[in-house]
Design brief:
This protein starts with 5 loop residues before the first helix and ends with a helix. The model has no long low-confidence stretch (mean pLDDT 79). It has 16 helices and no strands. Helix 6 runs antiparallel to helix 14. The protein is mainly α. 77% of the residues lie in helices and 0% in strands. The chain has one domain.
Amino acid sequence: MQKIAINNIAKAIIACMLWSTAFAGIKIGLQYTKPLSFAGIRFMLSGVLLMFFAGRPGNYFKTVFVNFRLIVVLSFVQTFLVYGLFYTGITFVDGALAAIIIGSSPLVTAIAAHFLMDHDKMTMKKTAALVFGIVGMIIITVSHKPWVMTGLKEVAGILILLMSTASGSIGNVLVAKYRQVVKPMIFSSAQLFLGGFGLLLFSIPVEGVPKLIRVKEYYVALGWLAFLSAAAFALWFNLLKKPEIKVSELNVWKFIIPLFGAIFSWILLPEEQPEIFAITGMILVAFSIVLYQYFADEKGRKLQR
């Protein structure tokens, strides 16, 4: 098995580091607006930002027109569903817990890739590695005692975030399956804009017409979130387009997200503090993903002997 090159690893780490800063920014922005409209505006801005780096306008719109059906399907799965569910779920749980749950996506992606990709199958050893992640998620969830703290509200938030994670994993697999169809930058821009536009339209009957906000902190959070989405998705989709990279093995690097996402939330959001069970769960999830990568590389190590 061919290992991911150093520059690809660097891109994956940078993308994950950018994503890990989103949780605190989202919680800040949601103090002033509703979740679906906030998500829609964020991703529309991200799509527009990437449009300036996607090549000539004529070629951009021609590519989008020719592949419009595929882009619409993937924007629905990868942006509309993922972030519609995510922004809804995060209103029910704190930023650190949300970061940890979303950080479990490598585990979900590995399962999705097993069923949807012919060359990315699970093994007994890989499955055993995932058990540590499942145990970690159980510890994290139970440690918050959602049935005691807020009735069923936090339980609903956790389930919604897990659904968001599953949708994102399926979207990653679909991008890899159609990796040679659309250039990564064009695809990233178009699917972010269309997905964001869909979220904004959907938010109007659900949340009402968005109101003008006159708070500087809101626009700082929105600007940063738009930038990080554009940069992170461009890097990630560029990696997913490479035929030598397996979806499950690339997603292993997302173990950085729960770690730094929780840390950023604890630093930037005064009401959120670390506690031992959450940290223990984080360690188990990270260990399971690192162990998964070790078993994934086992075949390559044997061939080198």
